[in-house]
Design a protein that fits this description.
By secondary structure, the protein is an alpha+beta fold. 32% of the residues lie in helices and 22% in strands. Strand 1, helix 1 and strand 2 form a beta-alpha-beta unit.
């Protein structure tokens, strides 16, 4: 019998998307075949403490994950980076980070894992960092000649000099204000009037030191999932039909009727193919690997704009990434298997590089 792979699922984190991460981690663990994998959940609390989990933090039944001596009835076991959680990481074969947002999706954890020479699912340090920072991401895509909407960036230091009237005149109304380094629509406002702009900036700056202002693009919201380390594979596109004014955090995670998912999206073959091609080009330009979900706007005139990439997309029961692959012929368990294999393949490729003269 082949020895089982030891997979550490890293969840939680110091992000406003902490709760979403718990949902994603649960679904990933449930998809891991216990006959093939030994699962070791490692959590990061909202205050940054690392701890070993017996699965109860994720609502998993007793016995679903390997029992660990350091866990005590599902209670937090604070460790810090030098404690049992890091020692456990040193004993695993591959890490599956499910950390949405800052301190997990932005290259920080990826750098730690690279230093520890641990294979991990998803993009590396560079792809994770530029994929998280919407300002840098959009500038790189624009430089590569890929279509992005009009946007401007404002830092906390530069806010006093920001001319709100000029910004509205340039970008038009409505416009969106969002933290540059966050996801799941946290901290985002749709601004309809000049008077709403300052409060929207206040909200966004509560989450980040850099804020993006974007022209509102009137169109359909299309998403496409990508899998691979280049060459990449793109899923069939799907469509988000928000029932709220926009696809907010509440619409994504709190209101089961907050949005309707149409998979596949009703698109002509040429448009669907163009979206798939742009999704792959986005991953290539941003140096993203393993997985990614690329979000688009499709205008009534047929113009396609890249909105953003998510390098650790949601794996909740209503998340688009696993649903798109399921509709494309890859089941949730098979998808998780593929992601783990891609992580091991990339680690082998990296280890083959020379590290000395």
């Amino acid at each position: 019998m082949t020895e089982k792979l030891r997979v550490a699922v890293l969840f939680g984190g110091r992000s406003a998307e902490h709760e979403v991460s718990l949902q994603s981690a649960r679904n990933i663990i449930e998809a891991l075949n216990p006959e093939r994998y030994t699962v070791l959940p490692i959590g990061i609390s909202p205050t940054g403490q690392w701890f070993l989990s017996d699965g109860s933090h994720l609502g998993l039944p007793a016995g679903r994950v390997q029992a660990l001596p350091a866990t005590t009835g599902g209670e937090l076991v604070p460790t810090g980076l030098a404690g049992n959680a890091l020692q456990t990481l040193s004993q695993v074969d591959v890490v599956f980070p499910v950390l949405h947002g800052p301190y997990g999706e932005d290259g920080t954890v990826q750098g730690l894992l690279r230093l520890a020479d641990l294979p991990f699912v998803g993009s590396g340090v560079l792809g994770s960092a530029v994929g998280m920072d919407k300002d840098v991401m959009k500038r790189l895509l624009r430089e590569a000649g890929l279509p992005v909407g009009a946007f401007r960036c404002c830092t906390r230091a530069g806010r006093p000099a920001l001319n709100l009237e000029a910004m509205v005149g340039e970008l038009g109304l409505p416009l969106f204000v969002k933290p540059a380094n966050l996801g799941s629509s946290v901290g985002i406002s749709k601004v309809h009037t000049l008077a709403e702009l300052a409060p929207a900036l206040d909200l966004a700056f509560a989450y980040d030191h850099k804020v993006l202002l974007e022209s509102a693009i009137i169109g359909r919201e299309i998403e496409c999932a990508v899998l691979g380390n280049d060459p990449y594979q793109a899923s069939i596109p799907g469509e988000i039909v928000p029932q709220h004014e926009f696809y907010s955090y509440a619409a994504k995670y709190l209101d089961e009727k907050g949005a309707r998912l149409e998979i596949p999206a009703q698109l002509d073959p040429a448009t669907a193919g163009r979206i798939q091609d742009l999704a792959i080009q986005t991953c290539r330009v941003l140096d993203c690997e393993g997985l990614g979900r690329v979000d688009f706007f499709l205008t009534p005139e047929g113009q396609i704009y890249i909105n953003e990439i998510n390098t650790i997309p949601g794996f909740t029961r209503i998340s688009m990434y696993p649903k798109l692959w399921e509709a494309s012929g890859i089941s949730h368990p098979d998808l998780v298997d593929r992601l783990i294999q891609l992580a091991l393949e990339r680690a082998g490729r990296d280890r083959a590089l020379r590290s000395s003269c």
